[in-house]
Amino acid sequence: MTSEPPLVPLSVRPISAAEHLDFVRSRPSVSFLQTPAWAQVKNEWRGESIGWFDGSTIVGAALVLYRQLPRLKRYLAYLPEGPDIDWSDGDVARWLTPMAAHLKKQGAFGIRMGPPVITRRWRAATIKQAIADPVLGSLSDVPADERDEAAIELRATLSALGWKEIPTEGGFSAGQPKFNFQLPLAGRDEADLLAGMNQLWRRNIKKAAKAGVEVTTGSRDDLAEFHRVYAETAERDSFTPRPLSYFQRMWDALSAEEPDRLVLYLARHEGDLVAATTMVRVGEHAWYSYGASTTQKRDVRGSNAIQWQMMRDALAAGATTYDMRGITETLDPDDSHVGLIQFKVGTGGEAVEYLGEWDLPLNRALHLGFTTYMRRRG
């Protein structure tokens, strides 16, 4: 009986944006938050692309965003929805240990990452039944339709390596959502997607078409019109809107990387803008990233029409997943957040639970001080 040869240690070093983009293009998909262009969008952080090398061959990559401590040249190193490495490797330490060593040399007092690893999935029918069950208060209480045992075991492995899972509140942490809602597209056509939706969604799509709602794609010049409706939505739904300059920067950075990376959608009824959204696509994964709608003319169902157009375009572009992004895990019918889940569940997709975000303190005193400071900032 022969034993397997030991795995070769991996090295981590900075790579250029061009090298990083080449690696992204070689993958089925990575999170758009892990593209080199995202460093330009998040310009309040310092960005760095890093690569994992097996000898001279690049086998993994990540975008690292460095947030500086007040008055100190020490940083939190943040890898949103990353890194893009082989998470199925039985020895993740050979990936994470050289990463931590590199980031520590760059002045990091702590590392935060969000492994793009799905642990559990719930189908739309399961969620619909759970919402109707008064005993079930959150998605975590519902037996999953699919469990990835290797992904779940990864949680214990990370803990053993010194990483700490960041607590979530209703499924959200300080960074990216732990629970997302996704519509699988692989092997499907438009008729199949429509058939998978509930009756209300199909009726609203037909209603929008009958009312004459027209969905078009916009240019950079249309971002101001999008932002006007987005600001109205923020006031109505009580959240703080991002400034127009943020979306202009996002447009410029992502479009420079790939011409169709970011697409702006505009739904109009008799010339009036009633809904507007942005969609980001990296390879086989498309994300609904920002959405807005007017209070006026809500009865023409512009939001359903615009979502349907994005789904069809994602399918035509070869995407295998249409991602409607974050949901909370509440199933309480009296909680205002449950309406968002019900809207997304109507598409016939599935809720997915990611591994969540994790911290590795490299300097415990500074890390504690930073987390306390951020908590006080709210």
From TrEMBL:
Transmembrane segments: none annotated. The keyword Acyltransferase applies. Keywords: Acyltransferase, Cell shape, Cell wall biogenesis/degradation, Peptidoglycan synthesis, Transferase. PROSITE patterns: FEMABX. It comes from the Bacteria. InterPro entries: Acyl_CoA_acyltransferase (IPR016181), FEMABX (IPR003447), PG_Glycine_Bridge_Synth (IPR050644). The keyword Transferase applies. SUPFAM superfamilies: Acyl-CoA N-acyltransferases (Nat) (SSF55729). Belongs to the FemABX family. This is Aminoacyltransferase.
